[in-house]
Amino acid sequence: MNVDYPSPEQLTALQQLWQEAFGDEGDFLEQFYTHGFAPDRCRCITIDGQLAAALYWFDCSYLGKPLAYLYGIATAKNHRGKGLCRILLENTHNHLKYLGYAGAVLVPAEAGLFAMYEKMGYALCSSVSEFTCRAGDAPVSLRSVDAEEYGRLRREFLPENGVLQEGDNLAFLSSFAQFYAGGDFVAAVNRDEKCFVPELLGNRDAAPGILAALHKKEGYFRTPGTEKPFAMYHGLSDLPAPEYFGLAFD
User: Fold this and answer.
1) Model-level pTM?
2) Which has the closest alpha carbon to 161: 93, 250, 57, 64?
3) Which residues contact 14 (CB under 8 A, 6 or more apart)?
4) Residue partners of 121: CB distance under 8 A and separation at least 6
5) Nearest to 176 by CA among 188, 166, 190
6) What is the pLDDT of residue 30?
7) Closest C-alpha among 212, 220, 215 to residue 188
8) Helices then strands (H, E): number in the chain?
9) Exposure of 19 in the CB half-sphere (CA atoms within 13 A)
10) What confidence tens digit (pLDDT) does each residue in 122-144 have?
11) Do residues 126 and 246 make contact, with C-beta atoms less than 8 angstroms apart?
12) What pLDDT is attached to residue 31?
């Protein structure tokens, strides 16, 4: 068993593992491996020359300290039940600490995974609110912004003790979402017919007007809140846990 960064020859195997674990293919895989993937932000387990497990991370920050947003944690079907996820996370935590990261954050894909990650040293740090609404009669004033401006404006609306996600985070998100700003909010809106808004910061009451401005009949919004457990944190230093992490790439 070897735990290390992936080799260039493993790129195809990484894509195949992703597709097996998450079902994504085609456009999404191209977007991720073009805009979100970096070999030095990926750790994988190789057994007898075959890729057995992998994870990725995006750089973010909290209180001026670097954090790793762990993403795409997957184990190949024929290697599940062997504790490889724990081995990979422990190795990654030690490696991140060596690199100077102050902590790691992740968003469990399913409710049942919270207990699993808790056993691996993670604790709930952030909850959100999610709601569906229909377009209102009056559209709000809305302007499209690029990733750089969205990152700058997002700082103004980010809840206190929230994690900053900029750079590669927003570059990847911009491959499938559009950024908007209004007078008292910012929003990232996925480019699909369902109009999923993975993050609305600021005035959540603007949601119906946002839909009207986008000519959408209905939308699904995620905002800061307390209703739904969302992100978990594992400290690698004495940095306290953040209280808001809401921009997940689901």
Assistant:
1) 0.95
2) 64
3) 6, 33, 42, 44, 51, 54
4) 93, 234
5) 190
6) 87
7) 220
8) 7, 13
9) 13
10) 999 999 999 999 999 999 999 99
11) yes
12) 86
